[in-house]
Amino acid sequence: MLYLHDPTGSDVNDLTWNEAVALQSGELVAIRRHTRFRTYSVWGLGGASSGPVGEKDSINIAGDTSFIKWEAPVRPMLLDRDEATHEWLIVAASYEGSMWGNNGAPCPPQWAFRLRGGAWHVQPVPAALLGRQPNLLMDLRVEDDAKFTADKFGAEGARRKAVQTSENSGLPYCQSFVGDLTMYRRLCEGMAPRFLKEFLDKDRAGISLADFPRMTE
Asked: What's the pLDDT score for residue 52?
């Protein structure tokens, strides 16, 4: 009975849904999102969850031939187009501390992905995006796939995002805006966006962004 209620298990959220995203231009874009992550608890913290791990996310836009499906082991927080080049951009972040050090040690501690030449490239966050609020739903919970079907979660997600936008709440720690330096201020404050380290290969880093071609700016 527990399996029928929540096939992925109580510590895993695996969910696909439709989401409307407002771009800075005012255009409203309908996207298809998928997320999969699990949570874990730390002894001594009263069973409190320490946050998602094993993150897998994707974004697609059906019927838009200029958009190639994006997939990465980090949670997307912003989707938009570059005002100068009109290339698609995604900014994403991670709860897992090892992701930062193993994948370029970016300052600020987020990764930007740019769709260029039919492929997604990873780069430091463009300076023009710093300070932007997330326009993607960030308030995702491990029990969502047990409580909602994909169709029903669309409405729940819209409700949560309205709260996220109006009250700046429900946002993950260190991800309240593009360029949030919480926990990385000593390392990154005053720096222009950059990678501080090389990316480790997948077999050394486990989950990584090593397969993405890289851009420095």
From this structure: 64
